[in-house]
Amino acid sequence: MTKKVWFAGILSLVLVSLFSLAAMADDVINLDGEWLFQFDDDLAWADEDYDVSDWESYAKPAEAPALGFGWYRYEFEVPADWEGKGDLEVQLPVLNDFDWTFINGIGIGNGNRAGKRKYSIPGTYIQYGEKNLLAVRVYTINPGIGLDGNITVELTGSVSLVKNPSFELPTPYPANWIPNGMDKKVFLWEKAATVYTGFHCLGLRATDTLVDKVGYWQSDIIRTKPGTEFKAQVYVKAEDPSGETTIQLGFFDAEGKELGERAVSRNLARRTADWTRGNVRADAPEGTVYTKIFLVSKENSGTVWFDDVSLTIE
Ligand SMILES: [Ca+2]
Fold it and tell me: 97 in a domain, yes or no?
């Protein structure tokens, strides 16, 4: 091998390595700096403005001595040029045992067993070109590791079809969701720690008191094309429910006329129950210009709550 060829070989290797590094840096942020940790529990610790100057810092979250409730916080910058490129996703490879995870004070997911987590972050929750805060509230059963592994935030390339899917963006009412019905008292916009994720969820109470006995929340319009197959999902919690609680998909033409029969899920609230997930699937019929999601409760003398809606193209 001549010196020239050898040099060209080395040069191309270096270039390939540089390109792959650049590609990684383009769409992955490694959260591998110092983590802050505090024992105990306070939901205010999800807040970016909370004073954490007295929190312990650790080179890795695994070094924090976890037992019972503890909170982990990490600040990271999201590149300004990621704006408009899609939703993000946070990966927590090792988590023991329960978690409630927040970005900039907004709940993005929770889990109740040891293992890994992968939560989607709508782009609308991100402050581009600025600091963002990942806060993880963890409950660890046995003394040891609460959070560990190569924690990353990645660009996914897909965009949330549902705006404000976990009802965490109040303006001052839940943004992008509209209640329907005559009696305002049946609509609940809950701000409590008992929601599925974050601090807010939507609810409907005693819809049997309404004139038409149906209460519902509807999403903003979601533009789409005929033939697209959708799956809409929602988490539902219920207390003494009666009647029927469903998630529904309606399709509309350019004039706003609803097309065909609305797709309706099974009854998602048959008895008092903690959060469970339900879904409905449907194809957008000929003439569709947009779809809307409906969270419906009919002839219900109890209360139902909704959180974490998603709409995916199948
Ligand atoms: Ca929520």
Answer: yes
In angstroms, what is the span from residue 29 Cα to ligand 1's centroid?
Answer: 25
Q: Are 276 and 245 in contact (CB under 8 A)?
A: no
For residue 200, the CA-to-ligand 1 centroid distance in Å is 4
Q: What range defines the domain where residue 254 resides?
A: 177-313
CA 166 / ligand 1 centre spacing (Å): 4
- Within this chain, do residues 204 and 143 fall inside the same structural domain, yes or no? no
Supply 125's token pair. Answer: 């929750």
Same domain for 53 and 142, yes or no, is yes
Indicate the helix (H) or strand (E) that contains 277: strand 273-283
Distance CA 302, CA 224 (A): 35
- Summarised one tens digit per residue, pLDDT across range 244-254 is 999 999 999 99
Question: pTM of the predicted model, to two decimals?
Answer: 0.79
Which domain CATH number covers 303?
2.60.120.260
User: Exposure string (b/e) for 81-90, b if CB count within 10 Å is 16 or more?
Assistant: ebeebbbbbb
Report how far ligand 1's centroid is from the alpha carbon of 107 (Å).
Answer: 6
Position 3, amino acid: K
Label residue 1 by pLDDT band (50, 70, 90): very low
- pLDDT range class, residue 23, cuts 50, 70, 90: very low
219 versus 188: the higher-pLDDT residue is 219
pLDDT in tens, 85-144: 999 999 999 999 999 999 999 889 888 899 999 999 999 899 999 999 999 999 999 999
Gap from CA of 125 to ligand 1 centroid (Å) = 13
Residue 87 amino acid letter: D
- For the chain, the domain total comes to 2
